[in-house]
Write a structure and sequence with these properties.
By secondary structure, the protein is α/β, with parallel strands linked by helices. The protein has helices spanning 50-57, 102-106, 167-170, 176-187, 203-214, 229-233, 251-258, 273-281, 307-310, 325-337, 356-365; strands at 10-16, 25-31, 38-47, 69-77, 89-92, 131-133, 136-138, 150-154, 158-160, 195-199, 219-223, 240-242, 265-268, 289-292, 314-317, 347-352, 370-374. Helices cover 24% and strands 23% of the residues. Its EC number is 1.1.1.1.
């Protein structure tokens, strides 16, 4: 009988986090066969996202395999899977698309009820894990766990892509770059000639800048406390840079002054709920829109004076830029192939899998945009 029809347990290397903030350990793990509606993927490349760092530093579920921005090749498929076959090239996604639930069919949201953001460290289908060491379960992250040579995901959390697309580049579309572009295009729908301000110039913020530039924004103001980011940000569309630490006035007042009343659009890409209020205050009366993309580490509640909304401002949340992953991501891959969007410019480091802790160090230090981790 074919091994594709009856996949077996695979033993492979994975970077396991045993505790909050502890260095990852390269371990031999057992990866179970895919269950119904699941696929097992041989990971080719995976990039480190700030969300991985936030979860790794928190007192969450351990032991755990992090990673969610990834590209790879389908190794085997579970029962009932008709969309994928062995050898398909895929991207993993942290929020899926079942195409059957109310939000998926609405055309108004990408928040899938069946395959939404998984926070408990297990699979969507049966709430158990596919990883183990000596019989002890190792928990998942966002139902992806790409810091492993092989992983198992629900078929609704993978996107088939062209075999010609470079897997070491398009893995960035699994989260950060797509999230920023979508926030600019789908959520805010930036108009030509508008003024945009972006708080936080990491990968997500710079992807917003890229999206704003492609939409024809006339001014794209970047705000960050790291002065080294100012010059580099110009390559992604930033026209002006502000460092709040070098200002005598609150940054929102500076922005309202230099824009003649506030920006048309502001984006909070830090993960700080206090900055959401600042971003709202940086928008103009009447039509100013603030979009929040960051995931806060602490203080998840937002505080803002009602008058900010009474005078016409709008606050919108954005998960994965509003993209429906299976429906929309192939078009972004096509845009990259046509050189319509930037990807490799975000890659500051290429790192072998065995040196994955170096990627974590660089991200914590603020010394990188995206580290792409290459499996053997």
């Amino acid at each position: 009988m074919s091994s594709i029809k009856h996949p077996h347990v695979i033993t492979c290397k994975a970077a396991v986090a045993w505790g909050a903030g502890e260095p990852l350990m390269i371990e031999q793990v057992e990866v179970s066969p895919p269950q119904p509606m699941e696929i097992r993927i041989k990971v080719v490349c995976t990039s480190l996202c700030r969300s991985d760092i936030t979860a790794w530093q928190s007192h969450a579920i351990f032991p755990r395999i992090f990673g969610h921005e990834a590209s790879g090749v389908v190794e085997s498929v579970g029962e009932e899977v008709t969309e994928f076959q062995e050898g398909d090239h895929v991207l993993t996604v942290f929020t899926g698309e079942c195409m059957k639930c109310r939000p998926c069919k609405s055309g108004k949201s990408n928040i899938c009820e069946a395959l939404g953001l998984e926070r408990r460290g297990v699979m969507h289908s049966d709430h158990t894990t596919r990883f183990s060491i000596n019989g002890k379960p190792i928990f998942h992250y966002c139902a992806v766990s790409s810091f492993s040579e092989y992983t198992v995901v629900h078929s609704g959390c993978a996107v088939k892509v062209s075999p010609l697309a470079p897997l070491d580049k398009i893995c960035l579309l699994s989260c950060g770059v797509a999230a920023g572009l979508g926030a600019a295009w789908n959520v805010a729908n930036i108009s030509k000639g508008s003024t945009v301000v972006i708080f936080g110039l990491g990968t997500v913020g710079l992807s917003v800048a890229q999206g704003a530039k492609l939409r024809g924004a006339s001014r794209i103001i970047g705000v960050d406390t790291n002065p080294k980011k100012g010059e580099k940000a110009k390559a992604f569309g930033i026209t002006e840079f502000l460092d709040p630490n070098h200002s005598d006035q609150p940054i929102q007042q500076v922005i309202k002054h230099i824009t003649g009343g506030g920006a048309d659009y502001s984006f909070e890409c830090i993960g700080d709920t206090g900055m959401i209020t600042t971003a709202l205050q940086s928008c103009c009366d009447g039509w100013g829109m603030t979009v929040t993309l960051g995931v806060p580490k602490v203080n998840p509640e937002i505080k803002a004076h009602y008058s900010l909304f009474l005078t016409g401002r709008t606050l919108k949340g954005s998960l994965f830029g509003g993209w429906k992953p299976k429906s929309d991501l192939p078009s972004l891959v096509d845009m990259y192939a046509k050189k319509e969007i930037q990807l490799e410019e975000f890659i500051t480091h290429n790192i072998p899998f065995e040196d994955i802790n170096k990627a974590f160090d660089l991200m914590v230090e603020g010394s990188c945009l995206r580290c792409v981790i290459h499996m053997k």
